[in-house]
Amino acid sequence: MTTPRAEWWRSAVIYQVYPRSFADADGDGIGDLAGALSRIDHLADLGVDAVWFSPFMPSPQKDAGYDISDYRDIDPLFGTLADFDAFLAAAHERGIRVIVDLVPNHSSDQHPWFQQALAAAPRSPERARYIFSDGKGPRGEEPPNNWPSFFGGSAWTRTVDPDGSPGQWYLHLFDSSQPDFNWQNEEVREEFRSILRFWLDRGADGFRVDVAHGLVKDPDLPDHDTTRTGAMGGLGNEAPYLAQEGVHEIYRDWRRLLDSYDGDRALCAEAWLPTLAQVALWVRPDEMHQAFNMNYLGTPWDAERLRAVIDESREVFGAVGAPSTWVLSNHDVVRHTSRLALPAEEQSVALGPDSAVLPDPVIALRRGRAATMVMLGLPGSSYLYQGEELGLPEVTEIADDERQDPRFFRSEGEAYGRDGCRVPLPWTADGPSHGFNDTGESWLPQPPHWGSFARDAQIADPSSTLSLYRRILRLRREHGLGTGDVEWMDGAGDDVLAFRNGDVMVLANLGEDPLALPEGHAIALSADLEEGLLPPDAAAWVVPARS
Ligand code: NOJ
Q: Atom of ligand 1 at shortest distance to CA of 406?
């Protein structure tokens, strides 16, 4: 039986595998589950507690797998259900849990239900599984309302009736290939219960829930003020398609379902909302277990603002009995080993060859390493994004004709999109695709300097980012930091973050002057220390010196 408050997800370090870019066993240039299995000892050696796989289900891949056409299988691009079972068994043998990405807000337009809906008449049961509506204007030629897609343009696309004439419109908060389900329909709810059971029965340890704040829409479909938009959300319930009260009942239902399984299965909400107080509504005791802390991710390299967001996180999540989570990078944002060297107001803007401001790579890597030392020194659960343990920067030099992200196309090139953080990983300094596969194929081009970040170039170098991550994770476990506490230490200066978690003091220098380390302490771990001082953009974990 689990000790109260000792559930694994309260303190776990969870590593995000973006399968198409992790490791590619069949050499087609897109990563797969067999590739992931071949690299599983890297994950075990790193010391992570769980792996979250971005979607691997059958999909036309219009949004890199976040457009699913069959929720109960594996896309042949990534392998088979047997490959999933093999990965899961190997992970469990190594004490690593496996979290599946669930995309309940929308399916692919190639999902059989959507195809049936297109073939059926307006107001039919087939159409009632999605959000279809007549258009405005005398001939229904205008969309039903002014809702925008998060990827650019309108959130509505008009259908064509079987006789070739224009028909109803359907809602898609993302790409037009991603129609939104109608969660007011009990049939949709029952289908997702069954999908949850499918993966739980196979042994999945939980789900990361995509767009967890978006499922329920105001049924009146009212217009709203579109002057405020966020790239992936960042809007609250003033948008009639986000954070609607009715969404919570869905997660209460799912929580009951997960609780009926053994093994401490967990749900994590992806809910980008303006304030953490709003996010905390998703992790009330009878709802999800965790929610991503995108507000932490969105905080620039500024000691005062970081301290404030850490305090706020601990307060609002603590108030509902949930752990704080922390995250710096994922597949939707500029990698933190680039982003943290950008001016604060530029940090949410995607980077490309013609960006007005590009980060200084040396400062960015130093800040990235120091930021990781702060994050993993905090109690709670942290998410790592594949490749950050190698210090991979955002790839900014991808040409327009090599880009793949629908956001780039729907914004007509105005937003570079998210390809820069999705480039296949370098495992070896030399060789085809730097060890991503053995054919040299790569769905996004790897830049010329990629080999210098390769795992095999870092593994034996004690000063490498990979060695730093391995040591951080080992010490975090040894000192029980994940289940610890935060006690701020004042007096080191406004540009310093200094806190104690158990017997470890975490110090990060965000200012411009070198900082002396406290006397009577030994350095347990440091990134970029110089002559016993903590220079700007560096961090250290210190412990009391043994007398
Ligand atoms: C959030 C996912 O993280 C992102 O990659 C995706 O494009 C959207 N949800 C739509 O599913």
A: 7
User: Which domain range does residue 154 map to?
Assistant: 112-171
| Average pLDDT taken over every residue of the chain | 95
Whether residue 167 sits in one domain with residue 198: no
Tally of domains within the chain: 2
List ligand 1's pocket residues with C-beta within 6 A. 63, 66, 103, 174, 210-211, 232, 270, 331-332
The number of the ligand 1 atom at minimal distance from the alpha carbon of 418 is 5
**Residue of minimum CA distance from atom 6 in ligand 1:** 66
Ligand 1 atom, smallest distance to 332 CA = 5
pLDDT tens digit string along 328-380?
999 999 999 999 999 988 888 899 998 989 999 999 999 999 999 999 999 99
pTM of the model: 0.97
Q: Is 289 helix (H, G, I), strand (E, B) or coil?
A: coil
Alpha-helical (H) ranges within 431-497 are 455-458, 465-478
Pick from 218, 206, 292: nearest CA to 254? 206
- Do both 201 and 153 map to the same domain? no
Closest-CA residue, ligand 1 atom 3, reads: 332
3-state SS, 73-110, equals CCCCCCCCHHHHHHHHHHHHHCCCEEEEEECCCECCCC
State the CATH number of the domain containing residue 382.
Answer: 3.20.20.80
81-105 average pLDDT score: 98
Task: Among 458, 484, 516, identify where a domain stops.
Answer: 458
3-state secondary structure at position 132: strand
Q: Are 381 and 232 in the same domain?
A: yes
Gap from CA of 477 to ligand 1 centroid (Å): 31
Question: Who's near 247: CB < 8 A, 6+ residues apart?
Answer: 183, 212, 213, 214, 215, 216
For residue 97, which of 207, 192, 189 has the smallest C-alpha distance?
Answer: 207
Residue 408, pLDDT > 60, answer yes
Atom of ligand 1 nearest to the CA of 103: 11
Clarify whether residues 305 and 233 are in a common domain. yes
